Amino acid sequence: MRHKQIIGIDEVGRGPLAGPVAVGAVCIYAEHQRRVAKLFPVVKDSKKLTPKKRAEWRERIREAETLGYLSCAVTFVAPSVIDKKGLSYAIRTAIEKSLEAIEPHLGASLPSQLGGSTSKLGETMVLLDGGLRAPSHYINQETIIKGDEKELAIALASIVAKVARDARMVSLSKKFPEYGFEKHKGYGTRAHYTAIKKNGLTKHHRKSFLKRVIE
């Protein structure tokens, strides 16, 4: 394999009425790819796993990271940014920040405008789910439809993002128990809409997604 590392990228939380959007990045080092494949023999989108199974996979990802087989990062972008600048901007920002968090573990240089060189990024392949794109200085990248079902690195990125975002929503539920965030994770369930109509909006709600409700 000519690439020394493969980074998978996936986003979680595009559609909820509340909570951040999250982007996960998982970098699998080429020399350990077979070991990682044995640890995760079935590629599955995180949304199709049970919460229990996701937690098990996430723990295995932590173990693989401790062993030096891979690195991972998750970035959240808040509802206030989504409302102000749009969902596409928020996801793009989260992708950039997750990749920046991974870069030191690549041995890859920073972009030239920051005083470095992009040469070592040529040894890195970035695989992204759906319609996602990485910054242009990642010269080797591919967007794959249903990539979370086809590529292990993307599937693992989906898991770390989903587990992290769900944990964030459970944490918010302790501050705002009347909304039931621990159950629906911010998505637009009937119970969530009922809670909004009864209690109003929190700063964690996406007002741009709720214009009809609050008008």
TrEMBL record:
BP GO terms, sorted: DNA replication, removal of RNA primer; mismatch repair
Name of protein: Ribonuclease
Family of the protein in this entry: Belongs to the RNase HII family.
MF-aspect GO terms: metal ion binding; RNA binding; RNA-DNA hybrid ribonuclease activity
Swiss-Prot/TrEMBL keywords: Cytoplasm, Endonuclease, Hydrolase, Manganese, Metal-binding, Nuclease
CC cofactor note: Manganese or magnesium. Binds 1 divalent metal ion per monomer in the absence of substrate. May bind a second metal ion after substrate binding.
An example Gene Ontology CC term for this record: cytoplasm
Organism: Candidatus Nomurabacteria bacterium GW2011_GWB1_44_12
